[in-house]
C-alpha cells in the first residue's frame, strides 16, 4: 500500500492522443511517491463530471497507471460509457481530480526467472509500466477483440498479439499463446491483467503447471481504499479479498475461481 495521503489532487491534463480504439490521457504527475507498476488512481474530470438534467456527479473511475515518464502519468482509456467518454474528451489544459497511487502493485521476478506478461484489452495498461521497470527482457502476449484495439500493443515492446476475430496475429484467445509459452519456458513467472474470463484462464493454467502468477484484477470501485466493499473477489478456501486494498495485484494461488472461462475471447 502506498503512503499517499487520502486526498484527491487537482492535476493538469498535458495531452490526449488516439491509439486505435483507445486514447492515452497524459497528466502532469503530482508531487509525492511515484506509482509502482500495478498501482492505480481514482480519477474524475474537474468540469462536467455528471449526467442527467441536474448533472448528478459520477463516481470517480479507477484506472491503472500505464506509464510514469518525464513528470507525467499516463492512463489508457476506452470509451465504453458516460464516464470514460467524458475522460476521453479531456484536452491539454483541462483539470483532472486524482486520488493515488493506490493499492498493491507487482513484485519483481526472482533472479533467473523470466517474466511473461499477459494482457487483454485495456488491461495491458499496468503491463506497460511494469515492462519499463524490468531488468531483463520479458515475453509479452496481448489479446484484443479486433485490429482497431490491437493498436494498443504499441504501448509495449516486442509484443505477440492475439485477436478474437483473427484480423491481426494469432486467431484465438491470448491464453493459447500463454499455454505454448509455458511449455517452452517452465521456469517463469506470469504477470497478467485483463477481463475476468481471461484472468481466470490464466489462473487455472498457472496453477495446473505450478507456475507463479500475479494477477492485476479489474473491478468497479466506488472509493479505492477499502471502505465500500464493492470490489470483492473470492479467496481460495473461503472469504473475500478487496481488489482496491488487498490488490489490485493478487497472487493466483490466493484466489478462488474468478468466473467461468469464456471460449473465444482474446481480451
Summarize the structure.
With 267 residues, the protein is of the alpha/beta class.
In words, what does this structure look like?
It is built from six helices and 18 strands. It has helices spanning 82-89, 125-133, 147-150, 174-184, 196-209, 243-246; strands at residues 9-19, 22-28, 40-45, 50-51, 56-57, 61-64, 67-69, 72-77, 95-102, 114-120, 139-144, 159-163, 170-171, 188-193, 213-216, 232-234, 240-242, 249-251. The protein has a seven-stranded antiparallel beta sheet. The chain has a seven-stranded mixed beta sheet with strand order 13-12-11-10-14-15-18, with helices on both faces. The chain has a two-stranded antiparallel ribbon with strand order 4-5. Strand 10 (114-120), helix 2 (125-133) and strand 11 (139-144) form a beta-alpha-beta unit. Helix 4 runs parallel beside helix 5 (196-209). The longest helix is centred in the last third of the chain and has 14 residues, at 196-209. It starts with 8 loop residues before the first strand and ends in a 16-residue tail after the last strand. Residues 261-267 have low confidence and may be disordered.
